[in-house]
Design brief:
Distance between the termini: 27 Å
Helix content: 25-40%
Number of strands: 6
Order of helices and strands: EEHEEHHEEHH
Shape: globular
Largest sheet: 6 strands, antiparallel
Strand content: 15-25%
Low-confidence stretches: none
Number of helices: 5
Length: 153
């Protein structure tokens, strides 16, 4: 499966950036695609249909739970997805130094928008397997391709 990791500057006087890691919708199976909602990738990645990591890693049982009772599991899935996204972004963009990926990040420099496509392990329904390890995920846990491009600020 592929992952798109982006750095997008937010307009304004200070160099605020949004970092994202998304999976192209076409890379997930049709069964899973029917259960998730798509978002548009940032402009730098071509605005194609993508899926957030939380929806990718969610166990199949998550989609069967009534909406009102998903809350506890959703919080755990969301936190693990944020940790995975942070690992992917920090691998590609070493200037991202936050422990967990923030909504926006202020940089000392202004490196501009960037986008990297790379391969990762299939993370479909991987929540239970990944949640068993409480440490921060690494690039190897994601199966990030060894040749993925690191882009310095």
């Amino acid at each position: 499966m592929d992952i798109i990791v982006t750095r997008t500057r937010i307009r304004g006087t200070l160099p605020f950036y949004e970092y994202r890691a998304l999976v192209p919708a076409e890379d997930i199976g049709t069964d899973r695609r029917a259960l998730v909602s798509c978002v548009a990738a940032p402009r730098v990645a071509g605005r194609l249909a993508c899926v957030r990591l939380a929806q990718i890693i969610a166990p199949d049982r998550y989609f069967l739970i009534p909406d009102g009772r998903r809350r506890a599991l959703a919080a755990n899935i969301g936190l693990l997805a944020k940790r995975l996204e942070t690992a992917a972004v920090r691998t590609i963009f070493p200037e991202m130094t936050a422990d967990l990926l923030p909504v926006v990040f202020l940089l000392d420099s202004d490196p501009g928008d960037a986008c990297t496509w790379t391969s990762i392990k299939d993370l479909t329904a991987a929540f239970d397997r990944l949640a068993a390890n409480p440490s921060m995920p690494t690039a190897s846990d994601l199966g990030l391709a060894a040749d993925c491009a690191r882009q310095a600020a």
